């Protein structure tokens, strides 16, 4: 009981600050009689008391569903319509929002960004609109996005129905339609004729309805691309570079957003880099195993990844040109090497420009064992110079062993323990059991052979 009284007192303090102050003029009250003034005062006190109790109920209702107490005063001050709202209507609105699967954080977010959701008429109108979509399980994010757009852009349920029917006529699936509606405002879809032209252009290139549906689901932003700008330039460049249609389809299925984010001429630069690579034939075959366009996308992914760490595009291109094996490793492996370079070796990302082969060597078989050996020798004070990245990367295994491991037998287990045994063992000239094949065949001696041998010996004597 004491806790409830304390909460009410605290709410009353908040709401009293949000209520407008009323000033009375003694000059105006002279024309009223004492009885009429007393009667008006009683009426105003009763109406203000009812408004006050209504506001207390709404405030406690919002606090019950997780609305921040620190924002309550500002929320009531900005949205005066709540002063005259009914607590039962507000509770019905919250119940409708919760029926769409919104959690507490989403509920507070949509109430803060779109206070009209606490108006029963507004929310009932959209409830009817959602029911006419004939979709049993609407995503909570879709409901939240649609209501927020309706409050900001003044869209109606009819606009939603128009957008849904438009995309259904373009053979898009239900999941893709709601994915597009989460990304785009309804007002944009309502007044845009570029969607049909975009779909027609994709079909003219060779995409079927299934391909288009997958692309729009992965990247709804393709429907907002300028047809005469980015889309036409991209497909023109793909045609000039003689990419096969199946390569283009596969690339758009897997990386539509990445392709559409490329500037005009960017694909040409990536293809020139691939053509100028000087590496072993097996490595180049592995790079181009999935096609030239997939290889260009791999170059784009790694250039963007290296630029995230502070390199410029020219430096990233230089690293890929000098060390093409980076295109073979996954991005997770490249990220692991860079994090090790920064956190363990305490080197900056710029060292990769001087030693790009660091990203091309095997991390677990070369970098880690050599680093552990060097750390052990430093802890013992066995090194009189600074070990740089070139010692971990550019020394051959035999040279590193002779210089850092061979003088210290305890480092053999750290390094691998197989080098010294391999050096000690003499390499055989011939394969094992070769002497059995070279041994002459043995024949048994008969009595006749013995007689002949004796006669031969007597003749010699």
TrEMBL record:
Pfam families in UniProt: mTERF (PF02536)
GO molecular function: nucleic acid binding
Full protein name: Uncharacterized protein
Organism domain of life: Eukaryota
Organism: Zingiber officinale (Ginger)
């Amino acid at each position: 009981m004491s806790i409830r009284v304390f909460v009410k007192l605290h709410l009353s303090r908040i709401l009293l600050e949000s209520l407008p102050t009323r000033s009375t003029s003694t000059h105006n009250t002279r024309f009223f009689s004492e009885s009429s003034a007393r009667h008006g005062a009683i009426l105003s006190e009763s109406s203000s008391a009812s408004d006050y109790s209504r506001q207390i109920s709404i405030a406690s209702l919002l606090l019950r569903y997780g609305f921040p107490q620190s924002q309550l005063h500002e929320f009531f001050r900005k949205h005066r319509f709540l002063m005259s709202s009914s607590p039962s209507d507000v509770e019905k609105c919250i119940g409708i929002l919760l029926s769409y699967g919104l959690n507490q954080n989403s509920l507070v977010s949509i109430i803060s960004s779109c206070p009209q959701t606490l108006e029963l008429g507004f929310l009932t109108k959209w409830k009817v609109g959602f029911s006419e979509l004939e979709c049993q399980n609407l995503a909570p994010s879709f409901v939240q996005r649609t209501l927020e757009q309706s409050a900001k852009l003044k869209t109606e349920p009819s606009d939603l129905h128009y957008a849904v029917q438009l995309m259904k006529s373009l053979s898009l699936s239900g999941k893709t339609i709601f994915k597009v509606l989460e990304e785009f405002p309804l007002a944009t879809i309502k007044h845009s004729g570029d969607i049909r032209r975009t779909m027609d252009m994709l079909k003219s290139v060779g995409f079927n309805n299934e391909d288009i549906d997958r692309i729009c689901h992965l990247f709804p932003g393709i429907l907002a691309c300028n047809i005469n700008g980015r889309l036409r330039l991209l497909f023109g460049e793909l045609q000039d570079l003689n990419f096969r249609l199946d390569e283009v389809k596969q690339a758009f299925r897997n990386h539509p957003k990445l392709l559409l984010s490329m500037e005009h001429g960017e694909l040409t630069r990536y293809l020139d880099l691939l053509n100028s690579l000087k590496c072993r034939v097996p490595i180049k075959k592995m790079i181009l195993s999935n096609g030239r366009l997939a290889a260009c996308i791999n170059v784009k992914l790694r250039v963007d990844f290296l630029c995230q760490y502070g390199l410029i595009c020219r430096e990233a291109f230089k690293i890929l040109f000098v060390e093409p094996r980076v295109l073979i490793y996954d991005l997770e492996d490249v990220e692991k090497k860079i994090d090790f370079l920064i956190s363990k070796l305490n080197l900056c990302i710029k060292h990769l420009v001087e030693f790009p082969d660091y990203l091309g060597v095997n991390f677990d078989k070369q970098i880690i064992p050599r680093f552990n050996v060097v750390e052990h020798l430093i802890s013992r004070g066995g090194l009189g110079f600074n070990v740089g990245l070139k010692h971990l990367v550019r020394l051959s295994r035999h040279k590193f062993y002779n210089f850092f491991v061979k003088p210290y037998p305890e480092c053999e287990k750290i390094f691998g323990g197989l080098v010294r045994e391999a050096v000690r063992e003499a390499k055989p000239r011939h394969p094992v059991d070769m002497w059995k094949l070279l041994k002459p065949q043995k024949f048994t001696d008969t009595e006749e052979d013995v007689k002949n041998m004796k006669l031969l010996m007597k003749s010699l004597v």
